[in-house]
Amino acid sequence: MVNEEAKTNVSPQETQALGPYMRKILLIISCVVLSIGNCGGPLIMRLYFIHGGERIWLSSWLLTAGWPLILIVLIPTFYHRRATTGNSTTKMFNIKPRLILASAVIGILTGADNYLYSYGVAKLPVSTSSLVIASQLAFTAGFAYLLVKQKFSSYSINAIVLLTIGSGVLALHTNGDRPEGESQREYITGFVMTVGAAALYGLILPSIELIYLKAKQVVDFPLVMEIQMVICLFATLLSTVGMLINNDFKAIPREARNFDLGETKYYIIMVFSGIIWQFFFIGAGGVIFCASSLLSGIIISVLLPVTEVLAVIFYQEKFQAEKGVALVLSLWGFVSYFYGEIKHSRKAEKNRAAEMELPLNQVARGFISV
């Protein structure tokens, strides 16, 4: 649950840097950007694999290779900051060495997570891998409780349990949607790797929030983007090492020539994959900054039905009973979470109204006594 304490704990400096109104606008924008990346990323990655792509390290590399796009966000904010302060010596990057080190560690973890996820997408249908990834919410909640002292309501706990059970239902029938030509061992390995990716990313999200809490400097949105850029840079470096060891760079031209959709579309898919996945990381970082890592995990899971339906429509993937049950449990969990959020917001508004009325009543009693 995104409680008032979780919001104020993001950083005391951040509260000064971003007002409540701007926070809401930025949160909405971050949610939209995250939605584009979360729904489009798995679909375009699966498109690469079903039409002849086979390079796992290349796919994981594309997840974060678009990190220079963050400069498109940072450059305008830099010139705006320099113009408003009137200081020509204003630095473009404000991230300190200790934050760079912490971000680099998370970046390496992200690179490992990208490989696990790419392997899973290569072996599983998008609709299945998306449902399995929904289990990351349970891991996010657990690590958020341990790392950033996230508090939960009965509704948020109910949502987490339902989403986790929904993902586990898929394990009851692991062969029903196995792609043609893929062995049972490959399918099970892909399933396990996807669960591993969900668990690792469940650690990464609260770790990013922890960086904001321990920053010891003003945490504004440009700094959040700088942290995200460092994370993606080191994740890309890890994937680059994997590509070099696996000779992926040499194999790209040959794979492009043999691609089912043609060489030109092969490279178009590569470019758009890098762009769309960067939307995911920018959006996730923005949501954590404006709210919490748990909310970021919730939104990622909330978009699961959209991704699943799109996969069935575009790729004619099977939709067995297990997926239907998992989908219903997931939707139930979403409703439970947001119903709890609405109740919490209404209660908070009533408390604020009561606090405002109390001084007025005291003044009125003072006049009466006089």
UniProtKB/TrEMBL annotation:
Q: Which GO terms describe its cellular component?
A: membrane
**Location(s), subcellular:** Membrane
Gene Ontology MF terms in the entry: purine nucleobase transmembrane transporter activity; purine nucleoside transmembrane transporter activity
Q: What is its main location?
A: membrane
Q: Kindly indicate whether the keyword Transport belongs to this entry.
A: yes
Signal sequence, start to end: none
Q: Which SUPFAM superfamilies match?
A: Multidrug resistance efflux transporter EmrE
Superkingdom, taxonomy of origin: Eukaryota
Membrane topology per record: Multi-pass membrane protein
Parts of the chain that traverse the membrane: 25-50, 56-79, 99-117, 129-148, 155-175, 187-211, 223-246, 266-289, 294-315, 321-340
Question: Which Pfam families does the entry mention?
Answer: PUNUT (PF16913)
Q: Which UniProt keywords apply?
A: Membrane, Transmembrane, Transmembrane helix, Transport
Query: Is the keyword Acyltransferase assigned to this protein?
Result: no
Q: Which family does it belong to?
A: Belongs to the purine permeases (TC 2.A.7.14) family.
PANTHER family in the record: OS09G0467300 PROTEIN-RELATED (PTHR31376), PURINE PERMEASE 2 (PTHR31376:SF1)
| The name this protein goes by in its record | Probable purine permease
Q: What is the lineage of its organism?
A: Eukaryota, Viridiplantae, Streptophyta, Embryophyta, Tracheophyta
